[in-house]
Fold these 3 entries.
Entry 1:
Amino acid sequence: MSDRQLSAMEKLKARSRYLRGDLAEDMVDPLTGSVSEDSTQLLKFHGMYLQDDRDLRPERMKKKLEKAFGFMIRIRLPGGVITPRQWLALDEIARLYAGGTLRLTTRQTFQMHGVLKFNVKTALKAIDAVALDTIAACGDDTRGVMAVSNPHQSAVHAEAFDLAQRTSLHLKPRSRAYYEIFLDGDKVAGEGERDDVEPIYGKTYMPRKFKIGFAVPPSNDIDVFSQDLGFIAIVGKDGVIAGWNVAIGGGMGMTHGEPETYPRIADVIGFCLPQDVIAVAEAVVTIQRDWGDRTNRKHARLKYTLDDRGADAFRAEIAVRAGKPLEEARPYIFTSNGDRYGWTEGEDGKHHLTLFIENGRLRDSPDGRRLLTGMRHIAEAHDGEIRLTPNQNVIVANVTKNDRDKIEKIVAEHGMAGRASGLRRNSIACVALPTCGLALAESERYLPQLIDALDERLAAHGLSEDDIVIRMTGCPNGCARPYLAEIALVGKGPGRYNLYLGAAFDGSRMNKLYAEDLDHDGIVATLDPIFAAYAKERESDERFGDFAIRAGFVVKTINGLDFHADTGARRTA
Amino acid sequence: MSVLQIPKTAPFGDEEIDLLNRVVGPASETQRAWLAGFLAGVEASTGNTVQPSAPPVAAEPLTIVYATESGNSERLANDLAKSARKNGLKPTAIDLADLELDSLSKTKRLVVIAATWGEGEPPSRAAAKYKELMQSSDFGHLDGVEFGVLALGDTAYAEFCAVGKQIDERLAALGGKRVVDRVDCDLDFEAPAADWIGRAVKVLAPPEADRGKVIPVEFGKAGAAKTEIVEAEIIELINLNSSRSDKETVHLALRFDGAMPPYEPGDSLDLYAENDPAEVDELLAAVGLAADKALRDELIKSRDIHTLSIKNFDAYAALAGHDYMAELIEKGGARTWIEGRQLVDLVTHFPIILSAEQLRAVTRPLAPRAYSIASSRRENEDEVHLLISAVRYETHGRARKGVASNYTAGRRKRGDKVRVKLRANKHFRLPRADHDVIMVGPGTGVAPFRAFVQERRAAGAKGRNWLFFGDRNFTHDFLYQLEWQDALKDGALARMDLAFSRDQSRKIYVQDRIWERRADLIEWLDGGANFYVCGDAKAMAKDVRAALVRAYADVKSLSADAAEAAVAQLERDKRYLQDTY
Ligand code: SRM
Ligand SMILES: Cc1cc2nc3c(=O)[nH]c(=O)nc-3n(C[C@H](O)[C@H](O)[C@H](O)COP(=O)(O)OP(=O)(O)OC[C@H]3O[C@@H](n4cnc5c(N)ncnc54)[C@H](O)[C@@H]3O)c2cc1C
Ligand SMILES: Cc1cc2nc3c(=O)[nH]c(=O)nc-3n(C[C@H](O)[C@H](O)[C@H](O)COP(=O)(O)O)c2cc1C
Ligand code: SF4
């Protein structure tokens, strides 16, 4: 049957000679800023996207110009930790080639946008010069491995970070194509023809993207339940990690009007010892490699494989491939999926400053907030490390006591520490327009204004300081993990959003569709009475998401398969 | 005198001889002279050199040398030749570029019509010969040679008519006898030039008495096709730069219902623009003439209200009687003061009330601006396309806007009419269809090459076309990008190399690409390719030529001089052609 046909992407991967294709030629064609359709797909495995500035689309044809093509470059940064020296390198590339802005992502790394094709190699060489790369930052592979960001419980976090790095390295594609094409590395004779180049992936890599993350309770900042494969640290009384709970099958993406696609939270299926983590990771990856649906990209993520095969099938196969069965999962408690701002002192006496970077956008804006320059000066002054959080924020980590004032001063001078309401502090938005090719509506460029309006209503109800998680995306793909937010706005069309309510504050429960196709005023008018009710009726420290369900505004979502069931407003005021 | 009879021995039939006798017999002296000329002319024009049966007394030779870039001097040279012929002279007009200098000493009468270009430089084609004329004297002395010089120029330039002036001095220094004083023409040269030509012919022509008995009758085509100003409708006006670009380059499509000038690829159009009414008002207000609507209209349509030259500075100073101005002129500081300044600076710095007459006196007629034609008639029957870059800059704290470019880019819209006139350029033509062409046209310099490529595509020319283009940013300033992509697909372009100066920290220009591609480039040239350069004269054209010389030196391992000679040879063979401005 034709619907059992391998997807076109699978055929392309197979003939690409380990991700080479015609990329080398396409990258130097001087007449166009773009590359062929095939090359566009292969680029992703090398951490890049061919995009175009959608703001300019209407005028280009008329002016006899092709689309305003630009490359999005995403760094591979397992665990989101970077040295000041590396930061300065990225900062310079951003200023020279990427429109003077850096973008922190929801998976703890950097993106640069609008890089001209002819500057890509120069940029990648500069990235390579500080021991960074973009390999597998996108594409059908194991990308951006996350790790809890707050280094508060120093020892435990160090271990989580170390595991994230080793896992990423272990699962990193081995093809030399990246070095050949972008770094002028020597051609590896005949590599494209060999069969043993990718011991873990083989010639066709994964059926789809595959995401891994390491969480350390009580912080669920990495949204472990949104990962294809998540690890939850189980810390013993002695403060040492006894092992890790294993969660599989998380994922956010869905498509409007296609209920067979749905977001899903991961199931905790067991526990493994620290020394077995990488073996378990490789087992889950290879199972998904073999079992994943390669005929339909909208059904190719592990979350669907899991619902099709069942957790027991996975447990059994993991036991075989990892050489030993998973143990019984152990108890753990998460308290939130957000960040704690300001200074904290680690057990090791080192100080850490968490800065709120609205939507992860680092740029010098006319209004006086000079985030890009500020961070550059911090990187120049700082000799510890810098961490990126899954909430698109920055942590200046391992600051010595006497350096605190120095950092404080830079922060103040560059207007980097503006007061933000509880809602804004807990907000994230995806990139969307103008660069994202899939955006149906604005996100990053709009959420700040929407929050201005909502803040006004919250203030009216005395809720300005309450932590409420709000997330916005320009389409249902879920890049800002909206379905795990107490308030989610998901782009439907220009200026129109679907409103979701009722997710758990700790990221353990998804929300439910409350209202569709709201415009700005509609959003504010719809939320205002719910805020009012929350102010009046909530029980002591009851979270907004839990309240929305108890107070009867929406039905509780159990998991992916009932995400699209019983939707809509059950109460309006 | 007795009636003339055609002898029976003449090579005609009897009744033909009768017929001839009936006409020639009673003919007046003038009629006979004309007939003689006519028959001689017929032979000449058909290439035969058979002398007419009644050989005319040879007319006195006159050598007319012209140095031209955009053809004005050449046209005047032809005008001069015409009237010289009518007055018993036998003129030969020749481009300084093609002149054998030794021949000068053999001439008795010499007229030079020379334009000045660049910053006081000779027209590019004549550059080499000009240098030789000025520096060497191997070509002997001009003792007794009667000469006169007509200089063409533009008072807007510091080096006004520099070339004409220097040639005039040089000819005298070489022993020539100046029989008619030099006149330096501004852009409105027609009247003064015609007047000078009249006087020149008078002094150079022999007295009536000893004139030949032949009235020259011209055959074949006259020199430059004289075309008229025509109105055209703007059917397309698009700024090709992206809205993120700091440049504005408009693609202008003109329709001529019927009256389209018969242009060839390589020609330009003269555009008759109008001044910005706002600027005119400012000027009028400053001199207290705001009320004069008629004058306002005249200034907008036909006067150059920008150009500030020593000429009108002096004129204005005389009116103003301003001490500081007088002092400037005294100490020669005026030259530096007018640099980068315009009339409006003058009237606002040294305000005085003027009469309409006085204001008119410090302005000159508004000259048309030339724009390379960017289309081929073969692809666009009744249209002409132009590519116009809006000139905007700031000097002395004042925002300045170029007249014609801002008139089109800023104040014209679809449906409006503009006045234009063909400005042919027979020195910038495509080669035979089977020859390759290399085109270097950054910025608006690409305009004529769009015409070239359209023409060669439509004609199915076998020769290959290679284009070098450059501008500031790939994404925002790639003029006609989609068309070039198509041209490469359909083969109308064999290659295209690009240089965008501001996309990377290191500035890259077309000359850098020429250097990178030198091996292939020299191979094309050895294969007989023509090399065209169009665009900025100040820097680009020079840098491109220098790059080509270096390319020759490197690829063929030649000495710097030998490489220079190689390029000079290309120029002499009319295979290195430029249209720069
Ligand atoms: C930058 C980032 C959002 C942000 O504002 O930070 C992002 C941006 C994009 N995502 Fe994402 N995703 C980002 C995290 C996510 C997450 C959150 C997470 O992983 O924790 C998700 C939901 C989890 C999941 O994968 O289910 C996510 C689910 C998607 C999907 C839907 C995948 C699916 O199988 O359902 C797409 C579309 C696709 O893959 O077909 C997508 C596609 C994209 C693309 C590349 C659009 C495209 O494919 O053309 C976006 C580039 C926009 C731009 O101009 O930069 N992105 N994307 C995040 C980069 C993470 C990183 O550093 O690797
Ligand atoms: C044969 C030929 C072909 C041409 N083809 C084209 C063409 O295809 N496209 C095109 O756009 N142009 C072309 N030009 C140039 C064009 O004719 C005009 O010179 C140009 O458009 C400027 O005219 P304008 O009336 O707008 O500016 P003007 O009012 O004439 O002002 C231009 C003057 O302003 C001054 N100026 C300009 N920039 C600066 C600066 N940055 N700083 C200080 N002073 C400055 C200079 O004195 C300059 O001469 C061509 C010229 C020639 C001779
Ligand atoms: C780019 C350019 C530079 C010029 N430079 C000078 C100059 O330095 N001095 C001058 O007197 N005239 C200058 N002129 C004016 C020309 O000499 C004038 O237009 C003349 O009529 C051109 O004659 P031609 O068509 O025979 O070349 C310049 C004109 C252009 C377009
Ligand atoms: S959620 Fe949609 S719009 Fe936003 S970045 Fe991801 S793909 Fe683009």
Note: The longest strand of chain B covers residues 230-239.
Entry 2:
Amino acid sequence: MVKITIKDLSFSYGSRKILDDLNVVVGDSEVLSLVGPNGSGKTTLIKCIDRILKPKGTILLDGGKDLQSLSRQEVARYIGYVPQSTTSALTTTVFDTILMGRRPHMGWRVTDEDIDRVVEMMKLLHVEEFALKDFSELSGGQKQRVLIARALCQEPEVLLLDEPTSNLDVKHQLEALDTVRAIVKKTDISAVMAIHDLNLAARYSDTLVMLKEGKVHAIGDPLSLLTKENIRSIFGVEAAVMRDLDRPYVVPLRSLSGEAL
Amino acid sequence: MEYSQFVGRKVLFILLSMAGIVVLAGVAATLGSASITPTEVYTAILARFFPGTFETTNFIDTIVWQLRLHRVLMAIFAGMGLAVAGAAMQGILKNPLASPFTLGIASAASFGASLAIIMGAGFVAGQWLIVGNAFIFTMLASITVYGLARYKGITPETMILAGIAIMYLFSAMTSFLQYVGKSEQVHEVVFWMMGSLGRSSWDKVGIIALVTVVCTLLLMYYSWDINALGAGDETAKSLGVNVEFVRVFCMMLASLITASVICFTGTIGFIGLVAPHITRMVVGGDHRFLLPASGLVGALILLAADTVARTIFAPVILPVGIMTAFLGVPFFIYLFLRRRKDYW
């Protein structure tokens, strides 16, 4: 089954076009990574899919329902969003932060089922030991895990992650993506993430979408997409691509600034 | 489970505050030029509800019911209203310095009152002239802030900037009125702006109580959404919150509470800023508990302040607005210095 179908999607900030006529399909139980240089529209696309921004074009969810015709609440039950970083102005405990993910499902009162869900997700992401700590006291990696737990509490079909590894050290980068991949493979959920690191993207994704200047440059599996030519034309970087591992490995060599791309 | 203990502590705090208010209300009603004991006060109150079971005298009944009790209740509901409005404002504007008066409401009310006192002009005539003017200009200010902020999107920044513009506009107009007014009129305006519970009556208590209770319940209904706003607008949207609607609606409710309180009392500062802070340090940032608990703390502070203001230089009664600051500031500084964590 197809989770999300994006048809002829465009988005502009004023007269500046950020996304230009995109067509992407997110399938069942897959990890799809958006890669591309800064300003290529990765984050914008994520926000359009979650209706944080209002694009032109069509996004179909859940077997053909138009995103625009759904209420925010309905969207929140289908899509969980993990922001890049969150500066929570109000102090909340980790437990309350994750409990907020139940908002699309619960009324004013918190039921035992809500609490069970939160506890389950805290265990899954190994944050239960911080449950009553303040969210703001956590490290970057811990925060990231809490936010993933919150999104999973929404019981979504699709998880959107905006640069999930940007504030993490190497170990936590691997752990965060291992978790996402494990959840996707274990359940029916699909994940769409914007990510900078091509090697991490290659290692953890089923599908890559290469974006350049708001357009889709190429879609495919990591092995066929991560070639010298593609990297040169998208990033303007001369790179060596090693293929002797099970996944391609990109070693950037030098920037081609000023030369013809 | 650990979580239920955690919630239990908040509920306990709310219950204790309620008990505190009942006790303090009894004590406050005993203080004044005619001395009566707390037992006599409670008996007089109960005697009206259960005649026959409780016996009281005419003298005590008159003092309690006609002189003191409405003022005590006015302090409770006004304090509650201002504190709830302040907690809601801090939540939706995500700003620890926000208070019910952040969006220019106080200066609008002052202008409305000045217009009535100095020019005798207003929307309603008779004894409600000052009250009506203060109320209407307050709501006018809120609607203008909303209108201005709409152009650039309803964010905390746009609302605060629009509010500051409105605040300066109305204070300039108030200054102008004071400049042209006669000295006794100016004196009355200044006194009005200090805030006092001296003009309380049963009708007014009824209005304030009704508006405060209804608006507080409505705000509490949106507690989860206000909590979500705290995590950022984008996150709130992704959790299914209609961000702009919630922000505007809660701002209007907070303004409505504030307007209906200060049109009767004048601008009583500080409660709306400090009560939510004190409460947040105890019960945390969950608005389901923060809103009602702030209201109770606000009621306690204002009742205590008014009682002190009535008695400290008796028979001279100080305006309670002066008292709230004198009592609240040292307490606030104490809490601020000994706090362990960042509350914002």
Note: Chain A touches chain B through 39 residues (CB under 8 Å).
Entry 3:
Amino acid sequence: MENQPNIVVIIVLGSLIMFLLTLVIVVFVITYSKRMKEKENIYQISIKNSELELLREVINAQDSEREKIAASLHDEIGPLLTVLKLNLTKHTRSLDKQNLLVEDLMEERSFIDKIISNVRNISHELTPHFVKNNGLTYALTNLTSSISKPNIQIFSEIDDRVLINTTLTVNSYRIILELLNNIMKPDDATEMIISLTEIDHFFRINIEHDGIGISQDDYITMLAEQPKRGLGLSSIQSRLILHNGTIVYSQENNLSQINMLFPLKNEQKN
Amino acid sequence: MTIFIYTLFYLSVFTPGVPIVSALINRHSLQKHILITILFLPLFSLVSDLLSWWLVNRVGFQYGILHIYTFLTGTTLFYYFYHLFKKRKNWVLVCQAVFTAFCILSVFFWGGIHAANTVPNTALNIFLIFFSLSYFVKAINELKYNKITQDIEFWLNFGLLLFYGTTLFISLFETYLRHGNPDTNIYTWPILYIANILFNLILTLGIWKTSRIL
């Protein structure tokens, strides 16, 4: 019992220390969780900003598409319709003078054919439902049939309407359109082969042509300079990202190749 | 001084009623295992204190009540932590088994039913300090505890850590305290009373904060 005062001191001091330790731990946990909450808020804001940026990109892309439509209508259909109108005015006068020739009317007919063809091309570029309804191979065949140079051949070893879903169909169609546009710009390609295959659960698109191509290094450089390069590249890139796809540019023996691979695991139709 | 200690004693005996009433009012906003824990812990405390108080005036202090109280409290808390640590259920069961073994050994071999249950009581303190600290580590590691002060688990563990941490030395030296000089005990028992009052207040605060009525 002589030790009791010492034990009392131990109890009082020990209890006090434990009490203070508890308070320190709890205050630390509350402070830490508040700090984590602030960090998460910052993270949420950054996500929101990214979403806004993405939305801005989408809107820009839409605007650009609209500009493209307007330019196509203005540059391709507008002049043809003007010429047709002028010719019809001329023929009306000829009809008045009774010296209208069948050849003159045949000329207008070819104009109308051109307009129909152009309208169809523009329409195919714009309407994804055409691609959705008929599949990638059919849409590409239809598209390339109106292109005289380069001579484009399409090889498809797959039934793309079964193998790939509609989103991938539309996006791969858009990517190919963009790539065709890029390839045909220098106007030096004479032959082009587009092949669609399936390799080890990957949907593969291969474009081979004899025009001016680019290497993978060029492509990486262009990606780094993306804002200056317009929306074409960003459109291709975002569609690739959307489907976890990859793209590889290569050049060999005066032939340029573009190889794209899309994993089929999550893309196949149900 | 005596009045102060008596006031603390009475407050300590009756404050468990506050979380009981709060838990009953907010029973719909509490999960089943938490409601059971919050109702039973103060209830055991209230009943054992009242029973001890009543018996002290008639036949003297009965250690049997202390044994039963420790066992029931421990079992309730192990039940709570069994539900809290879903990935470490087996560890909780092992601790519960060890604690139960200590309780049985304490009743039949270590001092018997008429002696203080120092070993199971101290073991319970250590287990609960460890479990509460584990909860806080878990809370820090998991982002879901963002609004930690709006989580009843936080308040319950805060209360448990505070009570069982502060009373660890009292549990450890309980035998000395019960058989020692009553004059020196005026410095030690108030620690238990204050810890108990704070535990009940923290629990009540947690219930009301969780139910967002406060």
Note: Chain B is about 80% helix and 0% strand.
